């Protein structure tokens, strides 16, 4: 009816209309971003607390658009997922990160892995393990140097498919980390059935170290759980010495965050590495 029609308009504020115009515009621009070479991969170091050495680099995508400026992945990844563009973009990130690690190895940088974020859309592709294998083969990089990060919700959205997919990736020799751990819904039963290597403690808990005993208890519990399940732990969002000291004392394996370095372009990370590995 007319009444309902009018009512349904109530939900569109001018702001929301503006927002959706921006989204539409951005979706079109994203389509061209790959060919126009506007996408970048930044890297953020991961440090072992046992040795103090850099053991990995997380690859984080950036989009530098001439009109929108630097667009956060928090804004454009969901758009890329809805439109399916995440598939070519995801392959590009994999290729770029794998080639970068290979070139760091050839330069004689310390042994590191590269960690690449995965979206649920990528994991739903039946041929995803073959795609990853092809990317590794092209760069002649052994699978053990690649880690894939996926969130609990990505894994739990279709748990049976995820189990099969993670089995296949594991069989290739790739390592798997569960990102943002502790923020999503995950069942212990499934956790033991997923072939995973590492839990990544979410930065929302790390941020509260020193002023929230619940968050500290959750971190303790996650570290304890990884030990009994024989998994590795990494904490993200480490910004202060207090965060670092707490995590070291509680037996966390690896750390990553602004305390060490913000995500940076490969050339800047190389300079950072020279100052670190002394
Ligand atoms: P994430 O995977 O949980 O990445 C961690 C985010 O925390 C990154 O934001 C990183 O720059 C930021 N971060 C790192 N250290 C600190 C710190 O000490 N303090 C604070 N406050 N933040 C820190 P970023 O780069 O904006 O990425 C946001 C999200 O976008 C990522 O969250 C990930 O879910 C997604 N993303 C990024 N790159 C890719 C990609 O290549 N593919 C997919 N599918 N998703 C990606
Ligand atoms: Ca991540
Ligand atoms: Ca995370
Ligand atoms: Ca996240």
Automatic annotation (TrEMBL):
It comes from the Bacteria. Residues 23-277 form the EAL domain. Transmembrane segments: none annotated. Coiled coil: none annotated. This is Diguanylate phosphodiesterase.
């Amino acid at each position: 009816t007319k009444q309902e029609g009018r009512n349904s308009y109530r939900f569109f504020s001018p702001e929301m209309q503006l927002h959706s115009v921006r989204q539409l515009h951005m979706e079109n621009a994203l389509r061209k971003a790959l060919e126009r070479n506007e996408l970048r991969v930044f890297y953020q170091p991961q440090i072992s607390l046992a040795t103090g050495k850099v053991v990995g680099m997380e690859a984080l995508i950036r989009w530098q658009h001439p009109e929108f400026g630097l667009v956060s992945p928090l804004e454009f990844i969901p758009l890329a997922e809805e439109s399916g563009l995440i598939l070519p973009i995801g392959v590009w990130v994999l290729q770029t990160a794998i080639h970068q690690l290979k070139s760091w190895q050839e330069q004689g940088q310390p042994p590191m892995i590269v960690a690449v974020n995965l979206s649920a859309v990528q994991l739903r592709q039946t041929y995803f393990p073959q795609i990853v294998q092809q990317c590794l083969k092209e760069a002649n990089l052994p699978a053990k140097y690649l880690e894939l990060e996926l969130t609990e919700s990505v894994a739990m959205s279709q748990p049976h498919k995820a189990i099969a997919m993670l089995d296949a990736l594991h069989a290739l020799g790739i390592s798997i980390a569960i990102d943002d751990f502790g923020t999503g819904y995950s069942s212990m039963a499934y956790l033991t059935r997923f072939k995973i290597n590492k839990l990544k403690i979410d930065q929302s808990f790390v941020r509260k170290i020193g002023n929230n005993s619940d968050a500290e208890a959750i971190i303790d519990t996650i570290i304890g759980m990884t030990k009994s399940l024989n998994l590795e732990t990494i904490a993200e969002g480490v910004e202060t010495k207090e965060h670092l000291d707490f995590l070291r004392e509680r037996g966390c394996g690896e750390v990553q965050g602004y305390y060490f370095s913000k995500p940076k372009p490969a050339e800047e990370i190389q300079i950072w590495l020279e100052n670190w590995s002394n």
